[in-house]
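Thread title: Can someone regenerate the structure for this chain?

I was given the following input by a collaborator and told the matching structure tokens would be attached. They weren't. Posting the sequence so someone can regenerate them.
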Amino acid sequence: MVKISSLMYVLAGLSTVQGCTQACAAVAENAEYCTYSCEESCLGLGGVVPQVAFFTGLTIAGHRCGLVGFDEVHCRKSDSFGPCASHSWSCGQGC
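Best answer:
Regenerated them for you:
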């Protein structure tokens, strides 16, 4: 069984393969939730799906988030979560 932390380390290492592309970014928010839109995949990273990688990272950090469809992540706001725009996921070099 692969540890989640090992998976995130591999994803971070793979991200050095190409130029930095913001793959998941905040697109909407209300008093309770942040909504993020994600690209379908990171080109050149062997099918890495930004939505899943972003969601996994947020969940490991202890945030309450969920996957919506194939390209969105919704997260419940909390004091520890901070501003919606402070969270994003990028694929590529220099991120």
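The chain has two helices and five strands.
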